[in-house]
Amino acid sequence: MTKTPSKTVCIKTYGCQMNVYDAARMADVLAPLGYRPVTEPAEADMVLLNTCHIREKASEKVFSELGRLRQLRQVRIDRGLGRMVIGVAGCVAQAEGAELLARAPWVDLVLGPQTYHRLPEMLARLAREGGAQLDTDFPADPKFDHLPAPGPRGPSAFLSIQEGCDRFCTFCVVPYTRGAEVSRPAAAVLDEARALVDQGTTEITLLGQNVNAYHGDGPDDGAAWSLARLIRALAEIPGLTRLRYTTSHPRDLTDDLIAAHAEVPALMPFLHLPVQSGSDRILKAMNRGHTAEAYRRVVDRLRAARPDLALSSDFIVGFPGETEADFQDTLSLVRAVHFVQAYSFKYSPRPGTPAAARPGQVPDPIKGERLARLQEVLNTQQSLFNRQCVGQEMDVLLDRVGRRPGQLLGRSPWMQPVHVSAPAAILGRSCRVLIVDGQPNSLAGRLVTPATEPPSADADAAPAAAPTPTRIPA
Ligand code: 5AD
Ligand code: SF4
């Protein structure tokens, strides 16, 4: 018999998909303690902010939110609803640790991305001793060995297979907040994937900060498996019809991975492959380890393997020392490659990263102006791709309820959101859809014939609306 939930937890997630995955895993850890997830902080006995440190803006949001939570806690106490536990998890917790407690002393829990499996012990200590509990270790014994099996995630799920990064791009905090690159053993990944599929998941996105550097122990002799080998093994799981991986580094796009794009039908024809800049001088200063030309060669090889492959990318404008000529090189690369989706950012100096202390910091108005020019080109490319889809038939995984009545929302193989008028009974299924309209940010389609795949085990449990997270850095 299942235990009746007696407490509520609200986990507010900022940042990348890995944080979305971590939030779901935190909920898995808390479920046996009787915590039921809720979306409104006002209804929660415990609020966990699952934070992002990648840019200053993301990081500063945490402190304004903590101020609001402090007031909310007081309201709850005044109404006799009991004291709300306030916790900070994720990368800001990892980076700021004790300083965070000094700045927001009303916080009860501070825990890093590698220690959330210890939440039950932290809560027990908090109840016993009071006082803030802090755990930002990088334990030798990985958290994954201590996490329970995943709960139901709906038709599309994330699965972390690799964490941390050894590349040390000079702008990036990830090697400091998430630590050194670690891959999970292939058997553990396969087990978690099977558990998700058994509960109705048909699409899995493999996550890692540098996911294509994956080199997990193999199940047989312990010899490491590459990402390509793992993808081939996952594609054998009956019912797992769509696979994706993110985020990749161009330097680690190996021949066997490119071959997998040609040979594994479940591997979707969409790849997020951040380039950051099109200027060789800036790429060198960023310590990216490749030139613009090398990036274009990788793209050519991918497209030769999978002609319908569409690309997305991340860009940073106004990196220290970036001139107008460097920026023009970025625009040229964008025009040459053609991206169907992209994330672009003004460079944000992050404490402790090499580029933050460099001369030649670019004034904010110049960053803003370059960002607008870059986004105009990227938006045009995205809109064009979406318009070109009109008249095509494609498989759409209908994974959530749309905003309008009678409407479901799904994803195309190329990650475009697709609105479809469809009965709620087919929520969770992959269906053949004719695209009838292409807007800048989404498509609209008509059902052709429902596909033959079984619906998810519990279609009603599919998420009604999930936030679209930002990308994992790479
Ligand atoms: N400033 C601006 N953008 C950054 N990114 C990472 N670090 C910074 C920074 N300091 C961007 C990169 C990365 C994406 C997730 O965030 O483009 O790929
Ligand atoms: Fe690693 Fe990506 Fe950050 Fe570079 S941008 S250090 S590859 S996580």
TrEMBL record:
EC number: 2.8.4.3
First-tier enzyme category under EC: transferase
TRAM domain: residues covered: 387-449
Residues annotated for [4Fe-4S] cluster 1 binding in this entry: 16, 52, 91
PROSITE patterns in the record: MTTASE_N (PS51449), MTTASE_RADICAL (PS01278), RADICAL_SAM (PS51918), TRAM (PS50926)
GO molecular function: 4 iron, 4 sulfur cluster binding; metal ion binding; tRNA-2-methylthio-N(6)-dimethylallyladenosine(37) synthase activity
InterPro entries given in the database record: Elp3/MiaA/NifB-like_rSAM (IPR006638), Methylthiotransferase (IPR005839), Methylthiotransferase_CS (IPR020612), Methylthiotransferase_N (IPR013848), Methylthiotransferase_N_sf (IPR038135), MiaB_methiolase (IPR006463), rSAM (IPR007197), rSAM_horseshoe (IPR023404)
Cofactor names: [4Fe-4S] cluster
Keywords: 4Fe-4S, Cytoplasm, Iron, Iron-sulfur, Metal-binding, S-adenosyl-L-methionine, Transferase, tRNA processing
Gene3D superfamilies: Methylthiotransferase, N-terminal domain, tm_1862 like domain
Residue intervals of the MTTase N-terminal domain: 7-128
Start and end residues of each Radical SAM core domain: 151-387
Cofactor note: Binds 2 [4Fe-4S] clusters. One cluster is coordinated with 3 cysteines and an exchangeable S-adenosyl-L-methionine.
Keyword Membrane: no
Gene Ontology cellular component annotations, sorted alphabetically: cytosol
Reaction(s) catalysed by this chain's protein: N(6)-dimethylallyladenosine(37) in tRNA + (sulfur carrier)-SH + AH2 + 2 S-adenosyl-L-methionine = 2-methylsulfanyl-N(6)-dimethylallyladenosine(37) in tRNA + (sulfur carrier)-H + 5'-deoxyadenosine + L-methionine + A + S-adenosyl-L-homocysteine + 2 H(+)
Region described as Disordered: spans on this chain: 447-474
Binding site for [4Fe-4S] cluster 2: 165, 169, 172
Function, as annotated: Catalyzes the methylthiolation of N6-(dimethylallyl)adenosine (i(6)A), leading to the formation of 2-methylthio-N6-(dimethylallyl)adenosine (ms(2)i(6)A) at position 37 in tRNAs that read codons beginning with uridine.
Family named by the database record: Belongs to the methylthiotransferase family. MiaB subfamily.
HAMAP family, per database record: tRNA_metthiotr_MiaB
Assembly and interaction partners: Monomer.
Protein name: tRNA-2-methylthio-N(6)-dimethylallyladenosine synthase
Annotated organism of origin: Roseospira visakhapatnamensis
